[in-house]
Amino acid sequence: MSGPAAHRPWLSAALITFAAGLSYFTAIGWWHSHPVRGWEFALNEFTLDDYAQVVRNPHVQSPWPPWHVFTLDLWAGVGGAYDWDDFNVTTGAYRPLYLLSCAAQIGLHGQEPLPLHLGNVLLHLAVCLLIHPMLLRLGCAPATSLITALLFAVIPIHTEDVASIVGRSELLAALGMAAAVYTWLGDGTPPSTARAAGAAAWFAAALFSKEGAIVTPALLLLANWARGDRVRQIIPLFGRWSLCLIPAAVYFGLRWWVFGSPVWAATPYLLDNALVDATGLQRLAAAPVLLYHYLRLTYLPLILSSDYSYRAFPILPPPLGPQLVMAGAAVAFTAALAALPSQRRALAAGAAALALTMVLIINWPMLSLIMFAERLFYTPSLFALLPLGALLAAIHRWQRAVGLGLILGLLFVYGLRTAFRNRDWRNNFALAEKTVLAVPGSARAQAAWGSQMLAVADGAKANGHLEEAAQAYEIAAQALDRAIQIYPEYHACHALLASILAERGEWQRAADMLEFAVPHIPLTPALVDLQERIREHVD
Q: What is the pTM for the complete model shown?
C-alpha cells in the first residue's frame, strides 16, 4: 500500500471502485433460487421511509415548479403514503436537494427501484473516490489515505445509507462536504476567490441536502490547520472564507420562511428519542454512550439493525461499561498525542473533525429527531476510520507481508459482511425479520415485525389458507403485545392488535384497545372500517 497503488491516482481509483462495487452490488439486488425458474436475480424493493418520502410523496412525484421543494418540510405530503387525514407533517427537517434528486430520477424513469438504488451506489462510490485525494491534500500519507478510503468504501455501517433511498441525504451531504474541503485546499496555496466560491457552492449543495453539513465552514479552517498552516496564515483567509456565510444565510432565511424560525425543529417523540425527557446533565453523560455504540458498529459490525429506538439498548441511566470504555479511549488518545509529536496535529484534527460532524447527532446540548441510527454516522465514520488507516499503513511499512495481509483480510471481512447485510434490505419483510432478531428489546422493531406478519395473515386469509393465517395472526399478536409491554403508549400497536382481536371475535377487548388508540393516531379508511365492525358487535 506504500507502493504504486498509493501514488497512482488511476490505480487507487480502480481499487476503490472494485472494493465498493463488490460490497454494494447487493444493494441493487440479489441472486436467489426460485422453485420453478431456478436461479434468478431479484431486485431490491423500496423499504421503510422510502415509500413516504419518495414513492408516494406527491411533491416528489410532480415537483413542478422544481423550486417548490425549497418551500417544504421533508415530511410534507407524507400523510398520503399512509392514508392519513392530516396530509402534511412538519418536523423541521429541511432537505430540498435530496428530494429534488429523487424527483429528477423519478421523472426520468418512473418509480422503478433499480435506478434509484443504483443512484445511491454511485453516490457512495463518488464519496469514496473523493476521500483519497482529499486526505492527500490534508497532508495524510498516500498509504494512509488509500487504506482509509478503502475501509470507508466497504464498512457495513454504511449499508443503510446506500441500500435505503432515504439514506441519499447523507450521501449527498458527505459528497458536498468532501468536495468543499477538497476545493478549498486546492494545490496547497492560499485559496483564491474562485476556489473559495467553489467551496461555498459545494457547501450549499451539502447543506440543502442535510442539516449536519452546517459544520462545513468550520471543517475548512480545521483542514488548513491539519495541513500544517499556522494561525497567522489562517487568519488572512477569513475574507474569502466568509463567502461560505452566503449559502448559510440563504439556508437559514429559507428555513425561517418555511418554519417561522431559522432553527426550529419538532420535539422528538419518546419512541424516537429516549433522551427527550432527560436532563441536560443526563444527555451529556449519555453522549459517550452513543459515541461508543457508533464506534462499536463501525469497527465490530457483528449485529446491525435498521432500528435503535426506545429500549433498543440501555441509555438511561447511562450505563457504566461504555462510559469506562470511552474514558479509556480518551486516555489512550491523550497518550498517543504525547508519544507521537509528529502525528499530534493530524490526530487532534481528526478528533476535532469527528466531534464537529457529530454535533447534531450526539443529543447534547440539542436533541435530534432520532436518538441513534446507523445512517447518521456516514460522514463521522471517515474520521473514526482515519486512525485505523494510519495504524494499518504503519504496520505495512514495518512488516510489508503482515500489513498487507491485515489490510486485505479486514477489507474482505468488512466487504463480505456488507454484501450480506445489503440483502436484509431487499424488502420490508426481510428487514423487519432481521431487525427484531438484532434488537428484540426495541418497541419499534417488535411493532414492525408484528405489522409484517399481520399483512401475511391477511393475505393468507384472502387466499383461503385459514390455518396459515391463524398462525401468522398469532405471531403478529405476540410481537405487538411485546411492543406494548416495552412502550405502553404505543397507540399504533394497540390499533393493530385491536384488528387481530376483532378477527378472533374478541370484540370487547378489541373495542377497549381501539378506544385507547384512536384519540392519538391519524384516522385512516381501514381504521374507520374497523371501528364500524367493532361497533356492530359491541353495541
A: 0.92
Q: Is there a contact between 147 and 392 (Cβ–Cβ < 8 Å)? A: yes
Q: Which amino acid is at 456?
A: V
Residue 85 neighbours by CB under 8 Å, 6+ apart? 79, 522, 523, 524
Q: Cα(155)–Cα(128) distance, rounded to whole angstroms?
A: 11
223/204 Cα distance (integer angstroms): 18
- Number of neighbours of residue 7 by Cβ within 10 angstroms: 13
Bridge partners for 32 per DSSP: 40
Do residues 99 and 63 touch, judged by C-beta distance below 8 A? yes
The DSSP bridge partners found for residue 43 are 29
How far is residue 223's CA from residue 233's CA, in Å, rounded to a whole number?
Answer: 13
Partnered with residue 40 across adjacent β-strands are: 32
Q: Which backbone phi and psi does 465 adopt, to 5 degrees?
A: -90, 75
Q: Check: CATH 2.60.120.10 for 440-538?
A: no
Per-residue pLDDT of the chain (539 residues; tens, 9 = 90+): 555 555 578 889 999 999 999 999 999 987 766 566 666 777 889 998 888 888 888 888 776 787 888 888 888 877 655 655 555 678 888 999 999 999 889 888 888 899 999 999 999 999 999 999 999 998 888 999 999 999 999 999 999 999 999 999 999 999 999 999 999 999 888 889 999 999 999 999 999 999 999 999 999 999 999 888 888 888 888 889 999 999 999 999 999 999 888 888 888 889 899 999 899 899 999 999 999 999 999 999 999 999 998 888 999 899 999 999 999 999 988 888 887 777 778 888 889 999 999 999 999 888 898 999 999 999 999 999 998 998 899 899 889 999 899 999 999 999 999 999 999 999 999 999 999 999 999 999 999 999 999 999 989 988 888 889 889 999 999 999 999 999 999 988 999 998 888 888 888 888 888 888 888 887 777 888 888 888 887 76
**Cell numbers at 37, concatenated:** 425458474
Query: Domain limits of the chain?
Result: 4-424, 440-538
- Distance, in Å, from the CA atom of 434 to the CA atom of 148, rounded to the nearest integer, reads 29
Q: Which amino acid is at 35?
A: P
Residue 269 backbone phi and psi in degrees, to 5? -80, 150
Give me the sign of the Cα torsion angle 257, 261, 265, 266. Answer: negative
Cell of 484: 406494548
Q: Are 121 and 108 in contact (CB under 8 A)?
A: no
